[in-house]
Amino acid sequence: MSPLKPPQPVAPPKPPQPMPPGQAGPRPPAAPGSGAAAPSAGDGPAGGAGGGAPVARQADTGPAWRAVDTQAPEAGNRTAAGGPALAGPPAAPFADRPAGPAAGVPDAARPQPDTQPPLDLLAQLTNTPAPPETPMRTAARRVKIWGSLAALLVVGLVVVQAVRPLPDPKTVLTAQETHTFDGAGPSLPWPTEGQAVVDVNGLGRMGAFGEMKPLPIGSVAKVMTTYLVLKGHPLEKGAKGPSLPVDQKAEDDYTQGRKEKESVVEVKKGQQISQREALEAVMLPSANNVARLLARWDAGSEEAFIEKMNATAKELGMTNTTYTDASGLKETTVSTAEDQVKLAKKAMADEVFREIAKMTNYTATTTSGTGSPGDPTTRTQYNFNKLVPMFGVVGIKTGSTTKAGGNLLFAAEKKVGTTTQLIVGAVFGQHKPNIIETATEHSKQLILAAGKELTERTVVKKGQVVGAIDDGLGGRTPVVATADMAVVGWPAAAVQLKLTDGGKKLPHAAKAGTEVGLLTAGSGQGEVKVPVALQQNLVEPSFTAKLTRLG
Q: Is 57 or 540 the better-scoring residue by pLDDT?
């Protein structure tokens, strides 16, 4: 075995040169097939603590990963076979590990940390770039968006439709609405002059005669006077009402009117007359002076009262009527038979008016009682309408002047079948002597003839389906009449049927047989009513009906 050669002196390592950041240092050359030798890391030439014999160096045959450093030659402790660790320069950091800041590089040139907010940094890290836009992707995205919106809309619509309040049920007439009586029309004995009208309250006009042009009506004007006083100062049936003080003008009107042969009743200043007695004086003996007294009491002046008369006439559709005084004495107070029939039907609806109009006489408290029957001073004052109470006549007012001729506005009741009908009519402009008797006779003949023309006819049988309850969502439940319905008319007359709820709120659900409305024919005093009831159970609309409703 050969003796070991003495160790060769090893040159001290050169210090590493600083490199710019990011630039790798030079890699030391290595012999092919072997690792590069490195000086020992020991304290002395021989690697011992205090020096010693030289030790032979063993070739480095370590793995190749030691040569991947890009900053400095490989360094680290190496040991020869059986020898101490060899000293060498410090190992450079691996290229895949972060290096500290390079020495000698200014702060401004060093990399600066990202100062963005954490959420923005997270968004940059997690957001992935959108794929390139294509027609197919655009269409798919739109379908997805609009499909979602449509689904939300459908869900919302279902909820809204399900919880919306149900519409109010309504009655619907399904039976024949108009019933016409057989025949060519009524035959009535009309006067040969003037104008006349016959009407059946609630059923319509039976006929008319003459040209309906305005003409003086005399004391028929007092119907409006009485109607307005009762409208402004209603009375209970049989009550006398408040007292009116008789003023000087009322007494003067009596004195002057008696001289001029007007219709007046004796009164004196300072007397008290009840409202009821004053109205009786106006309607029965047709007292002009008391009519003017009532006008002043009601409106403060005759002029103000006349304004009320004309305003009311307009409200009632009395288009050919003009009032210029409360008594009708003036020839400028004009109207027609047609207009006054409109007023008469309205006035006769007042119970107190009707009660006064059908009186034959009353007892006056203001008169001295010295005169004979018919005198303004007598205690018992009579109705100038001589038809009361014959032939079913229940009023209402006479009127006559030289210019107006004889006039009578009348009302008569006629029993027809199970009903009582009110015949209302007028005969105006009769100038044949005696003018008032002529008007009265023509009126009587018309009343009798009209009564004969009235007949009753059954138009609906008990149990007959006459209509339905419409729930507002397409559902209908039939209703039937609970009794026979008989209507009144005359030849060629048309009667209208109506189905109403009778003023009650209709239910959404009810059992069969429940009364839910009224079948009505006509109006006013001649009105006929029959209750209607459900033919079968009334049920609420189905869930499907609620969802599909449009209104």
A: 540
List, in sequence order, the alpha helices (H) in 127-274. Answer: 135-163, 222-232, 248-259
| Element of type H or E holding 495 | strand 494-500
At 323, which amino acid appears? Answer: Y
**Partners of 393 in the β-ladder:** 412
Are 440 and 386 in contact, with CB atoms under 8 Å apart?
A: yes
Comparison of pLDDT for 11 and 532, the residue scoring more: 532
Check: CB of residue 183 under 8 Å from CB of residue 476.
no
Structure tokens, 260:
């001029």
**Is beta strand 334-335 parallel, antiparallel or unpaired with respect to 215-216?**
antiparallel
* Token pair listed for 161: 């439709």
pLDDT band, very low/low/confident/very high, at 132 (cuts 50, 70, 90): confident
State the distance between the two ends of the chain, measured CA to CA, in whole angstroms.
119
Least Cα distance to 325 among 342, 341, 309 occurs for 309
* Angle between helices 275-283 and 222-232 in degrees, nearest 10: 160
Q: Quick one: tokens of 455?
A: 């007949």
Query: Average pLDDT for residues 224-235, to the nearest whole number?
Result: 99
**376 vs 105, which has greater pLDDT?**
376
User: Which run of H or E residues covers position 347?
Assistant: helix 337-347
- Transcribe 21-53 into DSSP letters: TT-PPPPPP--TTSBPP----SSSTTSSSS--S
Q: Which amino acid is at 164?
A: R
How far is the C-alpha of 423 from the C-alpha of 438, rounded, in Å?
Answer: 20
Question: Domain spanning 219-332+341-383: which CATH class is it, in words?
Answer: alpha beta
Give the mean pLDDT of the chain: 83
Tokens of 27: 């890699």
Q: Could you tell me what percentage of the chain is helix, strand and coil, using 3-state DSSP and rounding each to the nearest 5?
A: 30, 20, 50
175 and 466 Cβ atoms separated by less than 8 Å: yes
> What percent of the chain lies above the pLDDT cut of 90?
61
CA angle centred on 382, ends 376 and 383, rounded to 5°: 120
Q: 3-class DSSP state for residue 257?
A: helix
Between 61 and 258, residue with greater pLDDT: 258
Q: Which residue would you say has higher pLDDT here, 399 or 88?
A: 399
* Region of poorest pLDDT, from 136-150, 198-212, 351-365, 409-423: 136-150
**Is 116 strand, coil or helix?**
coil
Tell me the Cα Rg of the chain.
Answer: 60
Name, in order, each residue with C-beta under 8 angstroms of 460's C-beta and a sequence gap of 6 or more.
175, 466, 481, 484, 485, 497, 519, 530
CA distance 386 to 286: 13
